[in-house]
Amino acid sequence: MALTAAPGASSLPPFTAQTRLLVVAPHPDDETIANGLLIQRVRAAGGTVQVLLLTDGDNNPWPQRWLERRWSIRAAERERWGRRRRAELQEALCRLDVPAAALRALGWPDMGVLDCLLQPEQEALAGLAAALGDFAPDLVAVPALGDRHPDHGAAHVLVRMALARLGRSPLLLDYLVHGRSDGLPTFEQAGTPAQLATKQHALAAYGTQLALSGRRLRQLAGRPECHAQPVPVPAGSDRPLPWRPSPLLWPRLRLTTASSSGQARQWSWRTAPLRRDGQGGWRLEWPEAQAGDACFARLSLALPSPWIFDHWGWHEV
Q1: Which of 52, 192, 196, 245 is the most buried (most CB within 10 A)?
Q2: Sign of torsion, CA 282 285 289 290?
């Protein structure tokens, strides 16, 4: 049975034994922090849950340095750390009453989901589409487009591209871990005290993450668990880009574009297909953006920085 919800609805349709929920998690712990109550509600109704793990979260050096008392982290150490984090995810799922076989891991590079999106051969997109097709969910929890972690925003775009490739339209539920809500109406998961306690118990499986960020992660997991249904931009809309960057930044700016037809490109700001709109803004003149496809754009600054989160992030145009 397909799940549907009216725009602006304040609650989800009831879950049943036929509900098939796919949780797309860029890293181990995203499924628990943002979806722990949702998972429990589907399982309590007898529904089926699968977690699609994009990366093993192995590019996570500071907790690894702290716990392993080492400074240098080579490929072998990263691989071992990734296995440790995946094992934590398996334990968290067990605590959420999700069987071990419900985990499907794609093994993409941590902090490299955007690179997967830009692959000219589209191997990552094909793998993601295959995973979606095999499970055939009617409900997909996916990172919000506006999430400021670069892996999360790119994951949203890839899921939208993969579903378009398959020609399927399950109910999409955005979840936000990093950043602020974009104001869309949200569905709030109202957990019982027992479910809230179980969610925190599942989070406790992530010893690697709690070592240095325990307070922050417990606060994230303790927030009201909200999901929003993305509202596609109507075909034929000519929306301006939301950014008006200073000309001083132009030499360092990069514009990434992707469409539901499977096309993805990255440009310098000066070579990007942009035009002024006469009101101080910019509009995208990429052919895919004018062909009726869902189209997404991301603005970023090509400067090395220890800060991993996006300043501008993604926008649907």
Answers
A1: 52
A2: positive
| Topology of the domain covering 20-228 | Rossmann fold (3.40.50)
Asked whether the beta carbons of 139 and 19 are under 8 A apart, the reply is: yes
Residue 80 phi, psi dihedral angles, 5° rounding: -65, -40
Matching residue, tokens 């690894």 = 64
Tokens of 164: 């378009």
Q: Which residues pair with 227 in a beta bridge?
A: 187
Instruction: Measure the CA–CA gap between 98 and 125, rounded to whole angstroms.
Output: 26
Rounded to the nearest 10 degrees, the angle between the axes of helix 193-203 and helix 75-95 is: 160
Outline where 204-239 has alpha helix (H): 207-222
What residues does each domain of the chain span?
20-228, 247-316
Would you give the end-to-end CA distance of the chain in angstroms? 32
Picking from 35-39, 43-47, 284-288, 295-299, which range would have the lowest pLDDT averaged per residue?
284-288
Query: Which helix (DSSP H) or strand (DSSP E) does residue 41 occupy?
Result: helix 30-44
Neighbours of 232 (CB within 10 A): 11
The burial of 69, by beta-carbon neighbours within 10 Å (0-12 exposed, 13-18 middle, 19 or more buried), is given as exposed
